[in-house]
Write a structure and sequence with these properties.
about 85% helix, elongated
């Protein structure tokens, strides 16, 4: 119970601090350079691409293996009724 109250007080104090900007830092405000957002987008896209390549590298072999297994199971299941029909005709 006391821990909950402490957490609430700490959260309220943090919110109060976040609501007021720091006046000393306003004088240090600088304009954003022209290429900043381009560099930011390229960096984000590079990380996304790296993550997608790692995902593909990790899951592609497993997916190919599952496809081969399902193909083999399909061949076995597809061949079994034909053999039974051939035996029934004899």
């Amino acid at each position: 119970m006391n821990d909950d109250r402490r957490d609430e007080r700490a959260a309220n104090q943090a919110n109060e601090r976040d609501d007021h900007p720091i006046e000393e830092l306003q004088s240090l405000l600088q304009p954003v350079s022209i290429g900043f957002f381009d560099r930011l987008h390229r960096r984000i896209n590079r990380r996304l691409l790296a993550g997608q390549v790692m995902h593909l590298t990790w899951y592609a072999p497993f997916t190919v293996f599952l496809e081969f297994v399902s193909m083999l199971m399909g061949l076995i299941a597809g061949a079994a009724p034909d053999e039974q029909e051939a035996r029934g005709r004899e």
